[in-house]
Design goal:
This protein is an alpha/beta fold. The protein is about 30% helix and about 20% strand. The protein is built from ten helices and 14 strands. α3 packs across α5. It is elongated.
Length: about 325
């Protein structure tokens, strides 16, 4: 019998009947110990948003027959150090593509069309006309991290008649026809980029990738949109470019995060900040539910998990 543990009854309801050989229980490992009568039965454990660490993964380690830990995010670097030995970690790649891409486009449009300026004028009941509001159409856009979310951003940029160039770990032609360059090509690509979208995970290679040299290579009035991870951008390098008015930024993620009271990014000229909400999707979302059902099928057929990203090597 395949036992799927989910953190809330509404998720169990959304999953519905998984077949005669599968059952769903409600258990939130971020709130309670594993139920004693389920400890040796749980096969797939779905953990909730904004949870993790040694306590959560320590509870998962107590389940001897646990095969798959399903996290709710596409990013998984935060989870890897805690995955119990022998347990397989799966991320939610694909679930958040559309939502994250929508926010990336919304942030770019808001900056290009100066919406914060007009919202502020509205609060003052002032008709403050500023006709210079460049559109996305015809902008030269660079998407750094051209995976599934990057491709979703690319398709929406093309719908806005923008030019799209991709960057990833290795050069290739993406299935959508986008020319994707290797990371090593960034120095020659940046001077032509009017808008840069950052969608990479946070790794040793990408941490503070957007540094002084990266930013200096961008043309005047370029826009940096970050919907990846805050640590990709060196905040200390970005602030002088914003304060001088040479560059603009639209950030759904920041470093530090959450952004503390009084931090210079809150009031930096040309900077939009949203509180890491681009890809957040309820675990009752049909795309997440479909992913969990696919995990059940994978276990049923003895396959590796869908979106298998890491095998635990050490105790949590």
């Amino acid at each position: 019998m395949i036992t799927v543990a989910v953190p809330h009854p509404k998720i169990a309801d959304a999953l519905g009947d998984l077949g005669d050989d599968a059952r769903v229980i409600v258990w939130d490992p971020s709130k309670e110990d594993v139920p004693a009568d389920e400890r040796e039965r749980i096969t797939i454990a779905c953990i909730p948003h904004l949870s993790g660490g040694r306590t959560v993964y320590g509870r998962l380690a107590e389940c001897p027959d646990l095969r798959v830990i399903q996290i709710p995010s596409a990013g998984y670097e935060h989870a890897v150090p805690f995955v119990p030995a022998g347990k397989k970690l799966a991320n939610a790649r694909g679930v958040h593509d559309s939502r994250t891409a929508e926010m990336a486009i919304a942030l770019a449009l808001a900056s290009q069309r100066k919406l914060p300026q007009f919202f502020e004028a509205q609060q003052r009941e002032t008709w403050e006309s500023d006709p210079y509001c460049p559109s996305l159409a015809d902008r030269r856009c660079l998407v750094v991290g051209y995976g599934s979310i990057g491709a979703a951003i690319g398709s929406r940029l093309r719908a806005h008649e923008a030019g799209v160039t991709g960057v990833a770990r290795s050069a290739r032609t993406a299935p959508d026809g986008t020319q994707v360059h290797a990371m090593g090509d960034l120095p020659r690509l940046l001077p032509d980029a009017e808008i840069v979208f950052l969608v990479t995970p946070l790794t040793e290679q990408t941490e503070r990738m957007v540094n002084t040299d990266f930013l200096a290579a961008l043309p005047d009035d370029a826009l940096v949109v970050n919907v990846g991870r805050g640590g990709i951008v060196d905040t200390d390098a970005l602030l002088p470019e914003l304060e001088s008015g040479r560059l603009r930024a639209a950030l759904d993620v920041t470093d530090p995060e959450p952004l503390p009271d009084g931090h210079a990014l809150w009031s930096a000229p040309g900077c939009i900040v949203t509180p890491h909400v681009a890809g957040f999707a309820l675990l009752t979302d049909k795309r997440y539910v479909a992913l969990v059902k696919r995990q059940v099928e994978a276990v049923r057929h003895g396959d590796d998990p869908v979106n298998f990203v890491a095998m635990g090597a050490f105790p949590a």
